[in-house]
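[09:14] KT: can someone run the structure on this one? pasting the chain below
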Amino acid sequence: MELPLHRSKTDLVNLPRNSVPNIASVLREEIVRISRRGTRAQIEATKKAAAQHRHDIAELKRQVALLQRQIKFIAKRVSSSPGTAASEAAGTKLRFVAKGLRSHRNRLGLSAGDFGRLVGASANSVYAWETGKSVPRRAQLARIAAIRVLGKREALARLKAAGARPRGG
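[09:31] RB: done, structure tokens below
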């Protein structure tokens, strides 16, 4: 049965029940179609923005990596140039190990007070260095390094020359 393009009231009444379009379903379908079109346009804009953001982030990561390489290179150049660090003495960098200080002081047979007099510090400072509670200053590190090369007799001779009476450790 072919339906005419223009329907009259009688035509609609004579049509079978299931062939009459339900106005609610037609409206719903039209609303869904229009909302999908609007949503699609918004989603496309969001996708383009997200792609641009990913591109920008990748570029920033490349820049950060380049800057980190440059910093590393400059740091190596600065640390390798002679006489730049204040903690260097005679061209070698000084380092401090608490256990080494205690064992050297014991090898010299000096009390913490006597050792402190040799390096220009108090006995409490020497104990704090040995336990790792503090670290000697650069000037004191240089003095400690100078004492490391001394033997027991030389250390005692320096104490006597400084006017201190060695107490022994």
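[09:33] KT: thanks! The first strand starts at residue 88 and ends at 89.
[09:34] RB: yep, looked fine to me
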